[in-house]
Write a structure and sequence with these properties.
Number of helices: 12
Structural class: mainly alpha
Distance between the termini: 41 Å
Order of helices and strands: HHHHHHHHHHHH
Strand content: under 5%
Number of strands: 0
Largest sheet: none
Radius of gyration: 19 Å
Length: about 260
């Protein structure tokens, strides 16, 4: 791909994303050390936090891989500028979780098979617009999951890390949705075949595993009703998908197809 042109101004929303990324820069080691200082070595949640932090090392690495590919695929210069901030964010996220996991468990646990499959599937997507959409939806689920981890893991210090990471992930979601519905990626989203768009969503939902997230958060926060977290996350996802559908001419057909073949039941 050759040099990307400036098809839109860097001012306005794009400038806000870039400036927010600049303000959000922090040291992974320093943040991990502050979180680790809060740990009680007798806390029964420490093994869980070691597993969660280890898994987050690789999930954030998947985000780094995807953001790197999206950055090289971006057809306009402004998207490249903002994509570069996402690459830096994801690398910082993976590093802070690695610092935490190493200190709590002695090492970072190996990646689970679903994470390996997620990485391969995301990078193997044929269409850049589908990959961009899948990455944005995955970031949305991650930001929503971290909302609950912040509440349920306060005693371990890991909540502080998730709070910082969630701010970045929320910015990535906002950027991705803006790019897909009003920015340079709008044409790609509109030109995706319906089956490719819906396949990207199905891929994301399959690997997000809302049932497991709901069970874990309910264990951490027993005052919640079973299914409450899942319903909340599903509602948030549906709002994002509605925004995507609204910019396409076949919205009604897509809605009908999803009603007959729901990916979230």
């Amino acid at each position: 791909m050759g040099l990307a042109v400036y098809s839109e101004t860097v001012e306005g929303t794009n400038e806000r994303f870039i400036e927010d990324a600049r303000r959000s820069t922090w040291s992974p080691r320093a943040v991990a050390e502050r979180a680790l200082a809060k740990i009680d070595r007798n806390d029964p949640l420490l093994e869980l936090t070691w597993n969660l932090a280890s898994g987050s090392v690789y999930v954030e690495q998947v985000g780094l891989e995807a953001a790197s590919v999206i950055l090289t695929e971006s057809p306009d210069a402004v998207a490249k500028l903002i994509g570069a901030t996402a690459v830096g964010d994801e690398g910082r996220h993976s590093s802070v979780f690695a610092h935490y996991a190493e200190r709590v468990g002695g090492a970072v646990a190996p990646p689970a098979e679903p994470i390996v499959d997620l990485s391969g599937g995301l990078l193997a997507m044929e269409y850049p617009a589908a990959r961009m959409l899948a990455h944005t939806l995955l970031e949305g689920f991650a930001a929503d999951e971290f909302f609950w981890f912040i509440r349920g893991l306060r005693s371990t210090g890991l909540a502080d890390i998730y709070r910082l990471v969630r701010r970045d992930e929320s910015r990535h979601v906002g950027l991705g949705m803006y790019y897909a519905t009003r920015g340079g990626g709008l044409r790609g989203v509109r030109e995706l075949e319906p089956e490719d768009l819906l396949a990207a969503e199905e891929f994301v939902v399959r690997y997000s595993d809302l049932d497991s997230i709901d069970a874990l958060v309910t264990r951490l926060l027993p005052e919640l009703e079973p299914g409450q977290v899942r319903r909340w996350m599903r509602h948030r996802h549906e709002k994002r998908m509605s925004m995507i559908f609204n910019v396409r001419g076949d919205r009604a057909d897509l809605v009908r197809h999803r009603a007959r073949h729901p990916v979230l039941s």
